[in-house]
Every structure is written in C-alpha cells, then in structure tokens.
Amino acid sequence: MKKSEVTLYILFFLLSIVALLSFRQIKAFKEATEALGREKYIEAVDGFCEVIYNHIPFSPLEKKAIDSIYGVIRTADKMGDQTLKLYAIEMLRRSIYGIRHISTPHSAVLEDINRLTIELRSHFLVQDGYSKSLSETEAEMKGIVEKELAPNPWISFITICVFLGYLLFAFWSISNCTNHDRILMKKFLVSISILLILALGWAMGFYLC
Amino acid sequence: MAAVAKFRGQLLLPPFLFLFFLLLQSYKISSGDGGELVAASFGLGVAHPSGYPIYLILGKLLSFLPFGSIPFKITLVSSLASTVLLSLIYRFLIKLTNQTTALFVVLLLLSSYSFVSQSLIQKFYTLNTLLIFIIFYLGFKCLEECRVKYLLTIALLFGLALGLHHTTFAMAIPVLFVLVRNLKKLPKHIIPSIACFMLGALNTIYILIRSQKATLLNLAFSPNLELLLNTLARKAYGKSSSTELAKSIFLFDWPRLCYSISNIAHITVKQFGYLPIFFFFLGLCAIYKQNRERFFYIFLAVIAYSIFLSYLTFSHSKLDLDAVYIVANQYFVPYLVFFSIVCGYGFWFVSQLMSKNLRIVPKLLLLFPLIYIPEHYFRNNYSTNQVPHYKTIDQLFIKPVKSIYITEGDNDVFQGWYFKNVERFRDDICFISAPTVKDEFWSLENGCNKAIYKDSYPELMQESEPLNLAMLTPYMKRLRLYSSSPLELNPGLSPHLRSLYSILDFAVMPSDYIQDEVFNPKFKETRCRFEGYLHCNICLSHRTDDVFTRSLCSKYVTYLVFRAKDLSEYAPEGVVSKIKVFFGDKPYELEIVTNEKNLLFLRYALDISEYNKIEEFFLYEKK
Description:
The complex is a heterodimer.
Chain A: H1 3-37, H2 41-53, H3 60-79, H4 82-97, H5 107-127, H6 134-146, H7 153-176, E1 178-179, E2 182-183, H8 185-208
Antiparallel strand pairs in A: 1-2
Chain B: H1 2-24, H2 34-42, H3 53-63, H4 70-96, H5 99-110, H6 113-119, H7 125-144, H8 148-161, H9 172-181, H10 190-201, H11 205-210, H12 225-232, H13 242-248, H14 254-272, H15 275-290, H16 292-313, H17 321-328, H18 333-353, H19 360-365, H20 367-372, H21 376-379, E1 380-381, H22 387-397, E2 404-408, H23 410-421, E3 430-434, H24 450-453, H25 473-477, E4 481-483, E5 497-501, E6 506-510, H26 516-529, H27 538-541, E7 543-544, H28 547-566, E8 575-583, E9 586-594, H29 596-611
Helix pairs in contact in B: 1-4, 2-3, 2-23, 3-4, 4-5, 4-6, 4-7, 5-18, 7-8, 7-9, 7-16, 8-10, 9-16, 14-16, 15-16, 15-18, 16-18, 22-23, 28-29
C-alpha cells in the first residue's frame, strides 16, 4: 500500500467521523431545543448532553448546549426543583468527562460544575440529616469530586507512542535483519538491544502515568 | 480495464466498509464487558483475565482522538480492525482468485451476524481475528517460500497474542503443518524465534506494571510474577481456564466430539444459511485440486477454529442461551473468516465453470449475501442502543447522595464502574460487587477505590476486618444501602437482612428494622417522584437483539409493574390480575387491581417485555 493511499484513507476516516458527529450534534440540538420549548427539561438536558457527547472541537453548538443546560439549572433553581438541578449538573458533568482526550474540552465549565456538584450533593446530604456540618460535608465531597485516578494524558500518550514504536521497530528489524534464509546475527542482536531499551522506556512510562 | 476495476475495488472497499461499520457502531457503552473495557482502556487499567493489554493500549491510543465520546473512540478498535481485516482478505483473495470471488467473501462475512455484531461493540474479538488472519497469511506465504522473516514475524505475533484472546493459539495447529514442511530449516532459527516470541510477549508486563498503581479499574490484580502467570492462564475461571482447557484436549471423548461437530453445524447454518455450505465443500475440492499443501493448511485452520475450538469450549449437549450468546457469538469469529475463504474458493470454482456461457451467474450469486446485509440495520444497529447507557444513569441518579450499591454480575456492574470512574457520574456512590449475591467473595476495589473513598466510607475500608454488612446498619437505616438483587438469596444473609423493592433496585435493611407499612409508602412516593427521570422508552427504540441489553430492560419492566401496583389503590373495585416479575432469576408474583390509571403502565411493561424477549436471540433456537 502506498503512503498516499494510507493518507487518503486516514483523511477519509477522519472526515467521515466528523461528518457523522456533526449530523448527530445538529439532530440532538434541534430535538433538545424543541423539548426545552415544551418545558420538557429532562429531555432537553439529555439532548444537550448528547450534543456535547458527540464532541467536535470548536463546534458552536456545544457552547450553546452548555448555556442551555445552565438555563435549565437556573429554571430548576427558580422552581425550587433541586432534583432537576442535580440531574442537569450531573449530566453536564459526565458529558464533559466523557469526551476527554489528551486535554479536557470545556475545562472551565467543568471547574464550575464541580463546584456546583459539591454544593448540591452536600446540601442533599445535610438536608437528609447527615452527621457532619455543611462545611465538613463539602470538604468530604470535594475529596471525592476532585481526586483523579485517570492516567496523565501526556505521559500516557508518549508511552503509547513508544510502545507502538517498539512494535513497529520489531517488525522492521525482522524484515531488515534477515536475508532470505539467513539471520544477520550482528544486526539482529543490535536490534534486540534497541528493542529492550524501548521496552524499558514504555515500561517506565506505564509506571509513571 | 480489468486492472483498473481491480484497483478501484481495492481502493474503494476500505472506505465503504468503514462507513458501514461507523454508521452501525455503538457510540455509547455497550452491554456486557463494554463498560469494563472502555474504563480499563481509558484508565490504562487491567481488564478481566487475561488482561488484554494490546486491546487496552490500542483503545487508549484511539481515545486521544480529539472528537467523539470515549466509548465511541474505543469502539473504533473493533470497527477499524474489521475494516482492515476485510480489506486484507479482499487483497489476499484477489491475488489467488478473482475480484468477484474476493467481493463474494467480503459480502458473505458482512452477512454474518456475529462478525458484524462483534465489529460494532467494545470487544476484542475482531482485533483478535485480525491477528489470527495475519498469522494465517504469513503461514500461507511460508508454504510458497519459507523465508526466515515470516517465521520470526509469526513468533512475534504469537507473543503479542498473549495480550489478546487465547483463541489465537489455535492457529498453532496449521502453523505446525508449515513448520513440519520446513523441518530442515528450523533448528537454526529456533533461538531467534523464541527471542521474537519473548519480545512480543513482553507486552504482558503492562499488567504487572499497572497493578503496582491505583488505577481506574483493575480486574486482574497481578503485582507479582506468580499472579501475572495466573492472570495469563486465566486461572480465575477454574475449569474454563486456559490451562484446564488445554489439558482437556487429552481427555478424548466421542460424545463430546459429536456435540462439538453438531454445534459447529448449528453456528454455520445460523450465520450463513444452507447455500454457502455447498460452496464450502466445493471450495475444499477446488483448493485440493489447485494445491494439496494449501488444502491441508487451510483445512487445518478451519478445523482448528471450528471442531477443535468447539471441542474445548462449545461441546454442550444442550445449547442454552449463555453458551450461544457468550461462546458461539464471540469465540468463532475466526472460524467465520476461514469458512468464508473456503466458500470463496467454491464460488470461484463455480464462476470458472460458467465463465464461457453463463457469466451472469456469479454476479447473480453475489446478490445472495447482499440480501442479508440490510438485516443488520434491525438486528445489529448498535448506534440505536442506548440501553446500557441510560439504564445505568437512571440507576445511579435515583440513589440518595452517598449511598452504597451492591451489584450482582458483570452486566450490572461494568457499566456502573464506567460511569462512576470515567464519566464521574454520581461518583459519591460506593459500589460493592459480587459475581452473584449467593457468592462469598464481594469486592470493593473498582467501585469504591481506597485512594478516593477512604475518608468518605471509613466503615468499608478497615483493613483489619473483612467486609461485614452489619457495619453498614447506619446506612441501611438511612435508606442508603441498595442492591440490584434481593440479598435474601444469600443464605448467610437471609436471617439478618431484608430487601424491599424501591425503584429499579432494592433497599436493604436489617430484618428487625423493616416495617412494610412505613417503608412501602415511602418507596411508592419515590417511584412516582422519579417517573419522569427514567428512560423506559429506550427499551423500545433499540434495534439490536443483544441478550444482555434485553436483560437490562427487565429492570424497567419490574419498575412499571410496581408503578401499576402503586396505582391500584385508586380504583380498588377493578379487575385483579396476578403479574409475575423477576428479581434476578427469582420469580415474584404481584397482585394488581387494574384500572384506567395503571393499565397504561402495564401495557408499557408488556410492550417492553415483548420487544426484549431474550429467547429471540438470533443464534438461539428454543426447543
């Protein structure tokens, strides 16, 4: 397969994914806006979260969807419906966490939403007669909301690149250290040494990330 | 002209295949292992034994794409693997036969239920099949000319296979044939081959390394070499472990062999119908006529992934739903590939016979698999399947803040782990998981990780004492302990605890504390309050016949029946009906007075139940 062919395929794959995600975003946004018009808030939140979930960088619809969910949060506040507020907050929060890649899109929103999550969860707990005070409960919730066990994205990205490099180099070495029926032993041993160094690299990376 | 058409076919096929899979693939978590594999990939954790590091690493790599959701990107591992696999098969056959034959094989595979369904969800079977096909291809090349680079690459790939599903090792049977054919060359290449195998197998130290750390998910904790070897041998599965299965090869049993052959026949007919079987036998004859060595090699590959694998894993005398859904639907994807390739030779044979006078016949035969492909839109349309996604959201959202949730079985807990650990949805809830509630071994590791929850749930984190539900009495009394199945099913717990159906799950309380007249109205009120938050409708809009998805929908059926019961009191003079619901496997009869208000709920429950009959699974034949 030629290099140009591979590039063409990758381009096609990426474009078709983006086209599909755009289509889903537009459809979900339309449905959610309609639901919001009918005051079907849960349906609207689901739809706006769907827009975020089909994430495309720089999509204007995502910003609008986030604003609309904030609108539902304000409406829930006005109506005194704390359950709806919790639903909107939790759903927005999970949609953003669910589209993380090497960076986290809408990280500023996430920061604010984490704060609201802590407040609201604590409010519910204290209201239910929790043994701790509000500030203590908030500190406890903060401990849960802000702790992160996901691997560091940059270290894991580099590590995986090294791992793939290791595999590719292994295949390359096999075809280059052999000559029909013969193994070029010197080259083969050098390749194995390089592979072991690379293996050490990705092993360390997996430990560190 | 022919060359241009051939080139066009080669160029256009991969985009077409990719679009086909992309439109149908799941973009949210799928049922079963889906949640686990996505969470383990994203968090660079460890999946269930044998750990599957290769799948997890590739999944993580794709999760770096800057668009779409994490589950969508990790499903791409399966759909891309299938795209590459079918493109390689096409290129492989075009060289040996002709373009129409290659297209026939691709279409035949696209008409297969299991091949397509496995390409659309978060699972490793298509990636595994791709690896198997590459080994097969290299072995095939070795038959023509045994170059040392092919042997070393095969060794490297076998090493890599340790980080995937162990069915790859069945490929050792046809490869052994190649090695025997080239016995003279072998001795001098043994040590380099072992070195290459080891270099490939090195990927498994990922499990060892990641077990040293607190990760988002680790289902095969292996911090030392002994545990790593146990994980790789899948010792946790007891009789189904890889080592036990390997041992069972030597316990030859005629009835078992007969059952495995009959079960393979069942899979073949269900996947392809009867006509391809004719092509298959014709294909075997055609290959034999063409080249005997090729015949033995391909025949051994077919036998290895059909009768041999079936003898090890699918020799049940009676095919129950579990065996068909878990084993037949997943393990035999490589068999479907080899079967289709042989069918392709049969097709080629027929087209050669008709090349003079009836040229149109092969083209018409192409229509045969084409007829079945649209069926995937209704059976395998995972893009419409939102059941695992919303059912988990519903189940978690309705729980009070800082609750403890006991889950039973993989299908319930894997999606919960994903939502809680990756999407951080209701991460205030702590999960305790049990293979079944009857089991003695309950685990906290992945659903209530110490690194995060040690301050919030100190009762559960005492290292000196094993998990004891008596310590959770304060949670029970504050209605904060829930279970996906009634805990009374566990004989050790039944004298002490009682479960009351709340909403989708059960509230667990001490036996002496429970008062039906106090709690039932409370739960009734909760069921009414959360009615608008539940996504029951998704159970009527998915177009998949996935068994696990359908079984998840039973949760909504039970809820709707309870809602109907709650509304019974509004017209006590109505007709009394007895309705059976299931709590896990346990049937439970509810007496409901039907009236205008609750009839709608019962109708809805019936519709969901009818639409999600698990016995109607494609590969299953109810006798």
